[in-house]
């Protein structure tokens, strides 16, 4: 075929073979469709994520409910825990709570403890609190208690430890000695201060808290004041316990403390009525005599001179300071006032004391109080 023919055939080719406008339009439409699809998917994903975030982060429980505490022990299962939380908080979406708990593998990280939960916490927050062991501390405090059994009950009631665990440790003479106390004077170590501990605290960890508090109170200044009056910190605590049992009137604590310190210095028996009540366990007795005086107990300060072997109650720290800063006077005797005001009549000699005592006994007789 000649060159002229090939050239002519080329000229007869349809024009649309060389027209790119149609292809460009087709490709542009495809791109726009793909873009809209991507955008639609993105919007759907964002909506789903937003909805998931809302479900995870909104308050899990009903606002009308109060906070609760979840207690986890070594035997607590994740199923039982989730069931408890669902019930206590009235969780709106229990299924989601169980799903998230499984997702974060709570069952692998259950740590014994006490966890504060509230209805306004989110499901995610609840699961994180449990998983990471974010325990809520327990606030321990006590006041106006006399016996060690009362103390044990007060301290162990809000904790996982049993009363027997703490009781056993407080009766361990070797352990008490390691802290610088006897099984009687160990009670002096417990100052009525407030402590924060975890629900799972061990007995030794708990006692360490109170030991630290004791040594913080008995700093160099207070220890020096005790030495100046010839007493140890333990003896100050014992005197303070008697003072506090003698009267409910804090404004006469310094006078009562001064009286007992005067008797100790003179080698006199304290003859403190509250010690007889402690020895007998009869804390309501209003007339001291008869069988109470016969009690053969080291806490009977009518029978045995000096201080009893331990405190007869857990005194306030302000009472300890009242002993350290006691009033200097010459009183050796005191008796409840006949007006039943709760205050005492003080005397420097026995004759004056007997007049005060007869007046009070007469008042008791008039009211028919025999014991």
Mean pLDDT across the residues is 87
What helical percentage do the residues reach? Answer: 40-55%
The largest sheet is: 2 strands, antiparallel
- General shape: elongated
Number of helices: 16
Strand content: 5-15%
Q: Please state the oligomeric state of the protein chains shown.
A: single chain
Q: What is the structural class? A: mainly alpha
Number of strands: 6
Helix and strand element order: HHEHHEHEHHHEHHHHHHHEEH
Amino-to-carboxy terminus distance = 147 Å
Low-confidence stretches: 1-10
Strand order of the largest sheet: 1-2
What's the number of structural domains? 4
Q: Roughly how many Å is the radius of gyration?
A: 40 Å
Describe it.
The record marks 246 as: Important for catalytic activity. The chain has a two-stranded antiparallel sheet. The relative contact order is 0.07. It has helices at 3-11, 21-57, 78-89, 94-103, 123-131, 148-156, 163-170, 173-178, 203-217, 220-228, 233-246, 253-266, 273-280, 291-294, 317-324, 350-366; strands spanning 68-72, 113-117, 138-140, 195-197, 333-336, 344-347. Residues 1-10 have low confidence and may be disordered. It folds into four domains: 68-132, no CATH class; 138-218, no CATH class; 220-329, no CATH class; 333-370, no CATH class. It is elongated, with a radius of gyration of 40 Å. The termini are far apart. α3 (78-89) packs antiparallel against α4, α11 crosses α12 and α11 (233-246) packs across α15 (317-324). The chain contains 16 helices and six strands. The protein is mainly alpha-helical and 371 residues long.
